[in-house]
Each structure stands twice: as C-alpha cells, then as structure tokens.
Specification:
Layout lengths: L2 H12 L5 E4 L4 H7 L8 E4 L7 H13 L3 E7 L6 H14 L4 E5 L13 H5 L3 H4 L4 E6 L9 H17 L3 E6 L5 H13 L6 E6 L2 E2 H10 L6 H7 L9 E2 L2 H10 L2 H4 L2 E6 L4 H15 L1
Parallel strand pairs: 1-2, 1-10, 2-3, 3-4, 4-5, 5-6, 6-7, 7-10
Antiparallel strand pairs: 8-9
GO molecular function: methylenetetrahydrofolate reductase [NAD(P)H] activity
Protein name: Methylenetetrahydrofolate reductase
Family: Belongs to the methylenetetrahydrofolate reductase family.
Length: about 290
C-alpha cells in the first residue's frame, strides 16, 4: 500500500486524540450507558440550557467526574440573572470539585437576563479565578453567526483570548459545528494570523439521523447547501438514514498543517447520542488502520 495514500486517514485519526463530547444536564443516564465506550479522562462538556436549573447542571458535572471523565460545565452569560447566580453556580462547582474547567459562552437570549452581555463580561468579573477555575473554553464560528457580524465575532474572539492569556488560565476554543472542512481550515489560518494561539477543538456533529442534522444546522445558522451536504455525505432531497463525519474528518486531515493551523482537536456534538458517537470514533479508527 502506498504510504502517501494513507496519510490523510492517519492525520484524520490523529485529530481524534483527546476528543471531547457534549451532553445536557438530563443526559446522565445516557452517559452511564456509554461509559465503557468512552476513554477515561475524556473531556465532557455539560451544556447550560434553558429549562434546566443549577442543581441539574451541578449533578451532571458530578456524574461526569464520578464516571472517570473531565467535566467542563458551561456558563451562559446572557442566561445569568445576577452576579449572585453566577457566584452560586461557581461555588457549587468548587464544592463538588468540578470547577477546574468551564466553557463560557454568550448564550441564545437576544437580551441578557441579567448583568452579563457576553462571555467576556463573565471572564472579566474575576470570579472564575476566585472559585478555582483553571481552564476556560470559549466559542468560535468558522462560518459566522446569523445574529452577529463578522467583525464583532473576530473582536470577541481576540478579546476573550487576550483575557485568558492575561489571567492564570489555560484555554481553548470550541467551534460551532459545520459540514465543510474548507471554511474551517481557512478560519483556522485567520485565527492564527490574528495572534490567537489557543488550541482549537473543531465542532463536529456525531453520527445522527440526517433529518436531525439538518434541523440542528438550520437552527444554528450553519450552511446546508446541496454542495456542502454532498461533501459531508448526505442529500438534502433524501433525509432518511444517518450520516457520520467520516468525509469531513478525512477532508480535514488532508489539508491540516500544524505549522499553519496550530493545535487542533475534535469536539463532538452528540445529536445522535453519547454511546453512538463514542462507538463511531472507535470504528473510524479501526477503518483508518
């Protein structure tokens, strides 16, 4: 076999080293079921959704830690009604031993429910350091955001990265998911050109029903043109069946250049379930071999 022919697959597999997963506060039973399929020490993000209270989020972070994984609780700035609510949540994480890693995002509400306009405002409170946070994740949008201009997105990313660098924190960037590797790689080049050297976790949809994938893509403003869908491996005219990110990761591996793109890993949005995603990762690695 030609070694050069296997290089992209090998690189695509290497990108899965230290992959991370995402779950909601209500997914603890699913995590229990998937535990044997997920490598110990895997970072698992716990989302900050409307309709879930702090108790649910704290319990989920505790479960992640108890099962041998690294909890990364989300903090949604615009969903926080007060500084006291932020302190209450951080104090709960600190008491449970789950405050080391957090992911801070602006959040969905068009208007803040409290004093925090965006993730940077939370980072600048000084409360994260006070309650023992050591690592801060922030968001990135390779294909833009339907409600935020491109210039605002770049300013937010560079300002947040600078705030992390000025504090006693490590950090990384987790991107919104997409279906086309080309804009992701172009965005990575632009990120590094702007002096942001944080590791980047590329958001990837785990294997899921095509109808569900398209629904999430529409909801989050991700491009779903027919050409992009074909690159990813499904047709918008036939929404039956499931799709996994095989083609996406192979395409990413073909063009990924550590010297240009920096440290890159993969973050899975588990639309099709935690267990299905973790098992898919194992199968992808086997196929690549």
């Amino acid at each position: 076999m030609n070694p050069a022919a296997t290089a992209p697959a090998a690189v695509g597999t290497a990108l899965l080293d230290d992959f991370s997963l995402e779950m909601t506060g209500k997914d603890v039973p699913a995590l229990e079921e998937a535990r044997d399929s997920i490598p110990r020490g895997t970072r698992i993000n716990v989302t900050f959704l409307a309709g879930e209270d702090h108790a649910t989020r704290l319990a989920a972070a505790r479960a992640v830690r108890r099962l041998g994984f690294v909890p990364v609780p989300h903090i949604s700035a615009r969903r926080l009604p007060s500084r006291a609510a932020l302190e209450d949540f951080l104090a709960g994480l600190a008491e449970d031993g789950t405050a080391d890693d957090v992911f801070v995002v602006g959040g969905d509400p068009a208007r803040p429910e409290g004093p925090y306009e965006d993730a940077l405002a939370v980072i600048r409170t000084g409360l994260l350091e006070r309650y023992g946070v050591r690592h801060i994740g922030i968001s990135g949008y390779p294909e833009g955001h339907p409600a935020i201009s491109g210039s605002a997105l770049w300013s937010a990313l560079t300002d947040k990265a600078a705030a992390i660098g000025a504090g006693p924190f490590a950090g990384d960037v987790i991107t919104q998911f997409g279906f086309d590797a080309e804009p992701v790689l172009d965005w990575l080049t632009a990120v590094r050109a702007r002096g942001v050297d944080l590791p980047v976790r590329i958001g990837v949809p785990g294997p899921a029903g095509i109808r569900r994938l398209v629904g999430y893509a529409t909801r989050f403003g991700v491009t779903t043109s027919a050409s992009v869908a074909r690159k990813y491996g499904f047709s918008l005219t036939n929404l039956l069946g499931t799709a996994g990110p095989d083609r996406f990761l192979h395409a990413l591996g073909e063009r990924y250049d550590p010297a240009r793109h920096g440290v890159v890993k993969v973050h899975f949005y588990t639309f099709g379930g935690l267990r299905a995603t973790a098992e898919w990762v194992g199968q992808f690695r086997e196929r690549a071999r």
